[in-house]
Amino acid sequence: MKLEALHHITMITGEAQKNVAFYADVLGLRLVKKTVNFDQPEAYHLYFGDEQGSPGSILTWFEFPGAARGRAGLGMVHTLQLGVADGASLDFWAERLAAHGYDAVRADPRTLRFEDYDGLGLELVVADDGNPPLRAAHPEIPAEHAIVGLEGARAYSMFANVEESVLTDTLGFTHLGGGEYRLDGDERHFHWAYDQATRTGTPGAGTVHHIAWASRDGDHLGWQERVQRAGGFVTDVLDRDYFRSIYFREPRGVLFEIATLSPGFAVDEPADRLGEELRLPRQHEHLRAQLEQALTPVVNPRAARRQEAKA
């Protein structure tokens, strides 16, 4: 039994349309699902990824309108690393981000560092160590420069350089030294790291809510049992419509989720129309009229381009 690397990462934003404009247009990811928070259905939950919404490509956001900007600190993820093909792609992205008003800094020959509109720390990194590419199509972004999936994430921790046995002994990560780890699945891998915390954090817009690791469906209950045996408090299995989930907080304070690989995002709408209609969890379908009136409409750039082409 082993985890299949990353499933998704979930953040908080204060404005859904800005979120869609940046990730589905500026960065060229596909909006693959427009739904609501299971626990707070008055809040959007937006999913972005490759053309199929593949695990390993998925970034998601809870929208809490007007949420104040947060700040990453102790026990929080502070940087997400998105893969691109090579240095030429980093050059392309530096120019594209600048054209849209975002400052990007070439931290080294393999890394371009910037922040999104909420202040979330992002890096584009050269992804040449084995992950199969997970691309979305965008008319302004050549395929050779498209984002190819999530490569890594970094969190703040006390005792960052001390090996975390829950990662290695319970979850199957490989400790690479210092605060660096790698999680290898059968097809994909993910780089995880702790940096020394120098401050406490404040949840809010631009901060990470949780990070989810991918599990084969048949192993999911086994992971729940393994976390329990290690002394962790883990939730019951929760049906999230597009995957099933368990949650627990690892010893450094980061909220972890383990999510199944199926059924996927095409379970309730056609694959060629992902993210174009508001899809509601089954438990909230009876609230549709109320929610459609309360939620601010969000324009999907892909659907908008198709309508423009027809006009």
Detailed description of the structure:
With 311 residues, this protein is an alpha+beta fold. The protein has a single domain, classed as 2,3-Dihydroxybiphenyl 1,2-Dioxygenase, domain 1 (Roll), CATH 3.10.180. It is built from six helices and 16 strands. It has helices at residues 16-26, 87-99, 165-171, 220-229, 288-294, 301-310; strands at 6-13, 30-36, 44-49, 58-63, 77-84, 105-108, 111-115, 121-126, 150-157, 174-177, 180-184, 189-196, 208-215, 238-239, 244-249, 255-260. It has an eight-stranded mixed sheet, with helices on one face. An eight-stranded mixed sheet has the order 6-7-8-5-9-12-11-10, with helices on one face. It is globular. The N and C termini lie far apart (52 Å). The model has no long low-confidence stretch (mean pLDDT 96).
The number of domains is: 1
Helices and strands, in order, run as: EHEEEEHEEEEHEEEEHEEEHH
Shape: globular
CATH class: Alpha Beta
Q: What kind of assembly state do the chains in view correspond to?
A: single chain
Distance between the termini: 52 Å
The percent range for helix content is 10-25%
| Discrete helix count | 6
Label the CATH architecture: Roll
Q: On the 0-100 scale, what is the average pLDDT?
A: 96
Rg on CA atoms, Å: 19 Å
CATH topology: 2,3-Dihydroxybiphenyl 1,2-Dioxygenase, domain 1
Strand order of the largest sheet: 2-3-4-1-13-16-15-14
Please give the largest β-sheet.
Answer: 8 strands, mixed
Q: What structural class is derived from the secondary structure elements?
A: alpha+beta
